[in-house]
Specification:
Elements: E1 2-4, E2 7-9, H1 23-51, H2 67-84, H3 98-121, H4 127-157, E3 163-168, H5 171-183, E4 189-196, E5 212-215, H6 219-225, E6 230-233, H7 241-250, E7 257-260, E8 272-277, E9 280-285, H8 293-312, H9 314-327, E10 333-339, E11 345-351, H10 358-368, H11 388-395, H12 403-409, E12 413-415, H13 422-427, E13 442-444, H14 446-449, H15 457-470, H16 473-489
Parallel strand pairs: 3-4, 3-6, 4-5, 6-7, 12-13
Antiparallel strand pairs: 1-2, 8-9, 10-11
Length: 494
Amino acid sequence: MVATGGETLRRASTQRMFGARGWARKYELRLFVTDTLVVSLVMIGAHAVRFGWDPLVGVTGHASPAYWQVTVIVGVLWVLQLGWTRSREALVLGHGPQEFQRVVRASWNTFTIVAIVGFLTQWQVSRGYLLFAIPLGTAALAVYRAAWRTWMHGQRDRGELLAQVIVVGPMLTSQQMIRRIQRSRRAGYSVIGACLPAGHQFVDADMHDIPLLGAVENAAEIAKRENAEFVLLSGTDAMSLRESRQLGWELEGTGIGLIVAPAMVDVAGPRVSMSPVEGLPLLHVDIPRFEGGKYFLKEAGDRLTALMLLAVGAVPMLVVAALIKVTSPGPVFFRQERIGRDHEPFAMIKFRSMYVDAEHRIQELRERQRAEGNEVLFKMKDDPRVTPVGRFLRRFSIDEVPQLINVLVGDMSIVGPRPPLRTEVEQWDDARVGRRQLVKPGITGLWQVSGRSDLSWDESVRLDLYYTENWSLAGDFVIVLRTVGAVLFGRGAY
């Protein structure tokens, strides 16, 4: 067993990722089979809903095919697109939004190709047929891929389905890289050792279980000897540009991949572009912008979504309000000052989940128990201030629903950083933390889908800062989907 950051992890399996017997090929085959099954069922269903069970009904237009042929062709094209967009590539499975983004791109490509062929041939393929099949199929693909991902997470928590990695580079950056990998085991990497500059060794206690395998200049030979699948270059301080290139050459033909960690961390792909200069790949990092067209789209989408959800949830919200009123004295809603975008205060609205004297008792509880590893954010399990109904509301985040009103009036977003209390802001001793307030706070966010109350203060800040500088509309959609899972299973909520 290996202890990392207070969490006990099982030793990783030695099963390899690649190769004829590797887990990647087996997993990709399973995805191919289920891709084919889902697409087939969706296309058959679309045909049945639009045309009944008559397979011979024809497409309108000169020399047009029958719809059963269109169903087969679109289905085959769709499955091929899922392969061509590399949505089943092992390196994007189990972690991050890329798998789902590629699934959406495959569906869009399929729709576009069919539309172009229909335009060029003047075949009038039923729009209802396509508009039923493509969106429904995309949603079905996303749901079952999420189910597979949940299964993969369980396997990786047990030390399976991991790639064996050797970390190579300076001591400090290597330590930081190893810690991040160990905290994110579901990303699919297992560190089996490290190569440091000659004469260097790890000094921190949490690195005692990481074997030092040799010096950085011998990394390629060591990786072959240890049967590693990747060499992760954590920094080039200990190696010249020529030596780094030589390492890549030495790994050629070995089946061992090379991963290079950039010096600038927590920067998402859309902000990074590459331009080669004399064979040197220079990474250009766009300065984050906090206004413009995508912010307008985000705000418009937030308000429209909040309006629709409030309309749909009006009756359930009345039921919750009645339960709160009947089971404990006090108001239905709890209003609390929070700090929003540009450090502007606003009144955040929640269903009341605590007794009315909760605010007066917080200092006593703060002295008795702070959240573990958290110097600023106060959270505690089994909080005695929470009512029985409130405990249920909190477990499934129902108490957060009235924040849709804050979204509707423009104080918050659906997705964003956690809205801090004024007392928390006053304790910030690092200027970087204030960058969270460059965007509107959210009802949900990376902090919520990554553990919510189980996160330490530093990890919560890191995730919020990452979101602030790298958010995208597609990323927001993925966070909302992950939030549904976090809410249903009550992960990190108390």
